[in-house]
Design goal:
Chains A, B: InterPro entries: ATPase_BadF (IPR002731), ATPase_NBD (IPR043129), Euk-type_GlcNAc_Kinase (IPR052519). Chains A, B: Pfam families: BcrAD_BadFG (PF01869). Chains A, B: This is ATPase. Two copies of one chain form a homodimer. In chain A, 43% of the residues lie in helices and 21% in strands. Chain A is an alpha/beta fold. Chain A folds into two domains: 144 residues, Nucleotidyltransferase, domain 5, CATH 3.30.420; 164 residues, ATPase, nucleotide binding domain (Nucleotidyltransferase, domain 5), CATH 3.30.420.40. Chain A has a six-stranded mixed β-sheet, with helices on both faces. In chain A, strands 10-9-8-11-12 form a five-stranded mixed β-sheet, with helices on both faces. A two-stranded antiparallel ribbon of chain A has the order 4-5. In chain A, a hairpin with a 2-residue loop joins strand 1 and strand 2. Chain A is globular, with a radius of gyration of 22 Å. At the A-B interface, helix 2, strand 10, helix 5, helix 7 and helix 10 of A face helix 2, strand 10, helix 5, helix 7 and helix 10 of B.
């Protein structure tokens, strides 16, 4: 296959708290290769830093084009955590930068919740609960996006990993203090993981990744629930209820919406999934629970394929999904 | 009054999150003068930094001795936030430093909860709830100290200012999202104070004083409760219940203990005090609720007076209350 005859490639990017992932795909052949960096894109005074994103992305894309032989990029979709509130600089600069570096004609920027949605359900109506350290619910009737929660570990993310872990540690400390609501099993587990409980504040508060430290105790809560600990079971029951509340706030109220779960938190399995299934059936009886098709990067790939073929029908609102004005420039000047 | 005839002075210090206060007192005349700094003592890798404390304290004490004419210090009591878990360097170095600089013979270091207790109830059995941004309950039967909560805004401080403000902001965001448990009145109040709610995470998370930012919304919750908002009333009711639970965990179970409240949070008044009075009466029917006599600095002064006259009968355990071994050294060599 010559350079000129190579398929128009697609660039899909997923930028989040744990780093940057990039995939090179082809409309008719799916993902050809991918690369990952574990350095999260910096957030500065102007919000998410487009320069730092490009700094990481350029060598990845050079390596991907070399590996795959794909020379032309027809479309690029970048899913980024924090796009809606911290994405001004990204919206202003990233599309031009992608066009300049890689000759991409069509660029879309999406909130990571949108790529999570499309990765899980594709372009169909419904609601997706995305849960890891944090938690957000996103839904669409295909005319607009709705989101609920996703406010971070101090203001919400109710039912997410940091929320569950924090509740478990509070219960451990209640047992330590002799206050009601404590669990001796959670206390013992917390001591096994973090050392003597009086030293826990000194270990937690100085860290920059406090939410991740809290979330690291969520599996401990799941294990205690599995052993029948009533406090741990209550915590996971409350997490499931709050997740379902968030899903209900964004799911279309009519039609035949589908609901899917995505994100690492659901690897916790039955102690969380069983109560969640019941809560969702109660709060959204008209919605069908389905397994997620794929992850957020898969969502970016799907959106890039639709963008390249002018088939992207998802609602774009400038913040959750931003379609950059088309450019006709190519670095090789042959278009 | 000559220098030699001056009364043996007492040095009382209160070191906390909002700075350092020092008072010079006399056993028979009470507080003579005081000074304050708004620079909190640094916490470094070795815990609370004794050098930084002395750096601030020395000029204060020089000014106080000049102002009062008190030349000899018979006893010093330093109440410090974080002493139990972050006080190793303070215990190792501060007593010698105080002796060297000021010729103090008797030195005690106390957790700020202990000075808050003594300031509120004096050396008598009972329980004190100290609440500002954080919350801790401390109690004693005069044979040992017991403490409950005080674990900070991520792990507990249940019912404190940051806890109440955080719950209010979560309710505001629930209303914004259309999730259950929201309050439109709290939403409007939060928007009036912080601007559009989607910008709140960007304003809160980058700050170092996140707990204080959360606590700054506690008066907003109180105002909404005063207007009859049911969600705000529930938040303050839950705060009162948790405070009473912490008090019950530390209060002597027999005898005639007294209970007092201390700290800025209680300026909130009736919306918090009325439910708290009821909760305390239910959970601790044998305890008498009394007004706090004074603040933590007052507690340090009382303890210094008792220490100077060998009348300090409070339980010392090395962490909550540490009595330094006596020194016979005087900088003037005339003892």
């Amino acid at each position: 296959m010559t350079d000129r005859g190579a398929p128009a490639g697609l660039l899909a990017v997923d930028s989040g708290g744990s780093g940057l992932r990039a995939a090179l795909a082809a409309v008719d052949r799916g993902v050809l290769a991918q690369r990952a960096s574990t350095v999260p894109v910096r957030t500065g005074p102007r919000g998410i830093d487009p320069g730092h994103l490009m700094e990481q992305l350029v060598p990845m894309v050079r390596a991907l084009t070399a590996e795959t032989g794909v020379r032309e990029l027809g479309a690029a979709v970048v899913g980024a955590a924090g796009l809606s509130t911290l994405g001004d600089a990204l919206r202003a600069e990233l599309p031009d930068a992608l066009t300049r570096e890689f000759g991409v004609a069509k660029v879309a920027l999406a909130a990571d919740a949108v790529t999570a949605y499309v990765g899980a359900l594709g372009p169909s109506p419904g609601a997706v609960i995305a849960a890891g350290t944090g938690l957000i619910a996103i839904g669409t009737d295909l005319t607009r996006w709705r989101r609920a929660d996703g406010w971070g570990h101090l203001l919400g993310d109710c039912g997410g990993g940091a929320w569950i872990g924090r509740a478990g540690l509070e219960a451990a400390l209640r047992a330590h203090d002799g206050r009601p609501g404590g669990s001796a099993r959670l206390r013992d587990r917390a001591e096994a993981e973090f050392g003597p409980l009086p030293t826990l504040p000194g270990r937690l508060y100085p860290r920059a990744d406090r939410a991740a430290v809290l979330a690291s105790f969520a599996p401990g809560v799941a294990d205690c629930a599995h052993l029948g600990d009533p406090v741990a079971l209550d915590i996971l029951g409350a997490a499931a209820r709050q997740m379902a509340e968030s899903a209900a706030a964004v799911c279309p109220v009519s039609g035949e919406p589908r609901i899917a779960l995505t994100g690492g938190l659901f690897r916790m399995g039955d102690p969380l999934l069983l109560p969640l299934e019941i809560e969702l059936a109660q709060k959204l009886p008209h919605a069908q629970q389905v397994p997620a098709e794929g992850d957020p990067l898969h969502g970016s790939v799907r959106m890039a394929a639709d963008l390249a073929t002018d088939a992207l029908t998802l609602p774009s609102d400038g913040t959750m999904l931003y379609l950059a004005p088309k450019k006709g420039i190519s670095p090789t000047g042959d278009e």
